[in-house]
Structure formats: C-alpha cells, structure tokens
Specification:
alpha/beta, Rossmann fold, seven-stranded mixed beta sheet, four-stranded mixed beta sheet, 8 helices, 11 strands, protease, Peptidase_S51
Length: 228
Amino acid sequence: MITALYSDQFIAENAPMDRRLAALILSRGNRIGYIPSGPEPQREFFNEKRQYYLSYGLFLDLFFDLDAFSGDEEIGRLFSCSAIHLTGGHTGDFLRRLRQSGMLEKLRAWARDDGILVGTSAGAILMTPTIAVDALFSGGSPDAVQDGAALDLLPFEFFPHLNDDPGYLAALLRYSETTANPILACRDGEGLILGKGLVEIFGAPLTISGGFAEVADRGRIADLLSRA
C-alpha cells in the first residue's frame, strides 16, 4: 500500500511531491480513478485534475460517482486503475457517501492489497482512523465527533491547511491531549508519501501529540507505520 497525503495540490510548491508520486504510479501503469467528495455534474474539477495529471504522463481514466455507479463492472474498472484519487471537499459528506454506497470497506481492502491511494485535503483525512479534526474547519471540537471512523489505513490523524488560520495549531495541541492518535498537520504545499519501507516528507509538516508539536521526523513516522 502506498498513500499520498496532500494539504492542497494545485500549487507550485507541490511539484517535488507530484514528480515523486507520478514516478511511483507510472511504475505500475498510467491510469488513475477519481472519486469526488460530492456531486460534480459539470465535472469541472475532474477536468481540471485530468489536465494536471496529464502534465505528468498520467491519465485520469474514470470518474466514479458514489451516488450513481452502475455496479460490479464499474467497481472492477475503478480497482483496475494504477491509483485512485480522493478529492477535497466536505469530509463528513464524503465519508457518508462512501458508507452509503458500500464503498468504504471495498476501498479499504483495495488500498491494503498494494493499492496507491492519493488524497487531497478531505481525501487525505479519510485515510486515517477518524475525521474528527475536520470539525475545526467549521468551528467545532474534534472531541465532540462521535461517528467519524474512516478508512483507518494510517496510524495517525491528518490535518490539512494548517496555515489558513493561526488558531488551528492551538486547537490541535488541545485535542492532542485527549486523543491517543498522533496528528500530522500540513500547510498547503506540504505532504507525505508513505508505504512499506517508504516515508517521504515534503515541506515541514508537524507531528502533534500529547500537547506538543515538532517538525515531522522520518524515523518516528516509520516507527508508527511499523507498529500499525
């Protein structure tokens, strides 16, 4: 399993991570499946992302609508892709749609069976045990989230867009005192690519745990992954 977690993607600072991710995907093929967080009738973001990936020699091959997919044949097409991209958007709605469509467990199984899963913002949050930290974007408390269980592919929680509000770090520090999970927090332009024996950090994400924050350390993340 390889997971790529972006805070954002359409900015120049992400180019080093983009190039590395493209090389990993191209070693298996060039087709990427796309799962949007919500309805996208005009496919505006899909077409924008398609052009983005084309610049790296990758083809966004399949738009997979969680509300309207036709059955096993389309699921088979999705899971035959070289990688799957989970978009940004409303994290809670995305999780609800994955659950209601029956795709949450299927996607988890596919990823664990040597899949490459790419997530931006909400899509990256979903790869972790819980979407609790998403509550901060609407002024809520992560501790109040009761039904946030997500894909649980990684042994930490993920918080994107750390640079958007100076209050986010203080809120994450408080939350870290009540959750057993470490939190990886990224500013836009930062991210991580993780897999078996693979820990690549782009920028200077923070690891937040027990009320303290420090720049993410490759060795510590590798240790977390090995114990997961």
